[in-house]
Amino acid sequence: MKEINIIVEGGKAQGSSLGPTLGPLGINTGKVAEEINKKTKSFQGIKVPVKILVDSSTKEFQIEVGTPPVSELLKKKLNLEKGSGKAWKEETAGDIGLEEVVEIAKSVKENMLSKDLRNATKEVLGTALSIGIKINGKNPKEVIKEIDEGKHEMLFKE
Q: Which residues contact 54 (CB under 8 A, 6 or more apart)?
């Protein structure tokens, strides 16, 4: 089995862009793109990692869709093209509610290092900080401190 890892925009894989990778293996790129698009349709507008497993002897393939990066999920929630290139200068790309951050954390928690929702939320807040997104008008560092102080506990009842 050969493993090919790519990142595609949900629902928009194209056989022509897969050709250079899959063509030499004798795989029908149109069918692969069609399958990827079916499996990633719910992630439209978001870049998502996809693993293509190819059996070159039988020309059969399997598609495994990964979890989109947290930064993509945050940008999608805010309809942002990209984050702030100068987040370190306090340049803001957008503002999101803590409830939405917790929602994102719930959706990606199983693929994170965090063992619980509170820490998964703090990881998402770290990503928000790195791309210049404020949380309810506050710096994500402040919100992390509030979580550590026990505020917002109601949000972490699983």
A: 1, 2, 3, 4, 22, 25, 27, 60, 61
Is the pLDDT score of 107 beyond 70?
A: yes
- Single out the residue in 65, 94, 114 at which a domain terminates: 65
Specify which of 79-83, 95-99, 151-155 reaches the highest per-range mean pLDDT: 95-99
Q: Taking Cα atoms as reference points, which of 47, 73, 79 lies closest to residue 128?
A: 73
Query: What is the 8-class DSSP label of residue 13?
Result: -
Question: Model-level pTM greater than 0.90?
Answer: no
* Beta-ladder partners of 9: 47
Going through 12-130 in order, the beta strands assigned E by DSSP cover 47-55, 60-65, 94-96
* Adjacent-strand bridge partners of 87: none
Residues 6+ apart with CB under 8 A from 68: 10, 43, 46, 47, 48, 49
Structural domain including 91 reads 70-156
Say if residue 101 is in the same domain as residue 41. no
- Across the range 38-45, mean pLDDT stands at 84
